[in-house]
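One thing: mind reviewing this one?
=====
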Amino acid sequence: MSGNDAFNRSSRTLRSPPPEGRPAMEAVQGTPVAVAPAEAPDVVSTTEIQKWISEIEKRLSEICNIANDGKLNSEQKLRINTLSKSVLGGISQMAVQYQAVKQNLLLSQAKVNTLSLQNNLSTQLHELKQCMQAKVTTEEKQSFADMVRTGKSSAVVPTKSNSSIVIYPADKEKSSEDTKTLIQNLIKPETLKLHVRGMRKTKNGGVIISTDRKDDLEKLKASQQLQQSGLKVEDTTKRRPKIIILGVPTNMSEKEVFDCIFEQNVADLQPNLTRDIFMSSVKLSHKSGKKDLSTCNYILECTAEVRRMLIQQQRIFINWTSCPVRDFTLLTRCYLCHLYGHSAKYCKDTEPTCGHCGSSGHSFKECPKRAEPAKCATCLRFKKPSNHKTGDDQCPVKKNAQIRYLDSIDYEGA
């Protein structure tokens, strides 16, 4: 089959004819020849389409050769060539349309993949956000001891400070429960539209009432029912925060230590803070550490401003030593009744409560149920789920006690 054959288009399958109309034809030496369009689009054909077109060209070429060699008149031969040309033109258009559909399919698939990746990324970011929010919420409720164990932070994150007042009975013989009952009988929160966050007992028969808004406290103070009842209403006062300075040399006197803290760490940073003001803002609470060591720990009680300044430095310089500084909080748990906020020395219970089974009348060493799973004695007392050990970090009573303790300290300097 000659290279000038009208249907020998295999060499041009990578350049398909335009989709609209049919290719123009010229007669060369009595044989129709297809003329390629000047600006045909470059469309890459698949191997199978190339093979199909090549086979069709071959068959149509054989038909034309038979027609040319046979005893047909010119009109019949021209008719066969025209029909063959028409068939090949239609096939070429079909190939172009197939390639267009294929390209659209690939583009659509690429868009689907892109959208899928974006959706996966969005889901991952959402999960990461939730994880970070949960982590922040957990860290905000951690005590200092928890932070030391995990090593995540050297400073306590104060909880959201609630507005609160303390109400004491006129009769000092009354208990906190009596005071609480009297208040609840006198005050109707729905009438005053109060947002009471909680009520808890305190010493001397008092009750602390916490609210979300300070306006609620003013309503309580102005309540005529409280004023006429003889109850004494006072604002709650928060304790000063405490910090611990680790690794203070024991061969230095307390005065030398305080002088170094001021001169080496405070004087240059706070030029307006005089030595007298600083000394009146800090007080040694106590020292800790093992005896016969070259260093000890200083626990200082200080104002919120001084605490914030020293904590931000993370380390302070004392003479030739660099000492880490941390917040110091100590959540006391009574090992007689297992409640938080007091020690066994000041416990009012006369009998011990077992820290393993939660029953009263015996201690942990005497517990007859030590082979059974432990129960939280604190949660049992408050009739809460107790399927965990007493003092467990996840104990809800312990967490609430930690929050209350941190809320009782003036970390903000308000």
Q: What stands out?
A: Residues 252 and 319 are 9 Å apart (CA to CA). The chain has three domains: 1-140, 163-235, 242-327.
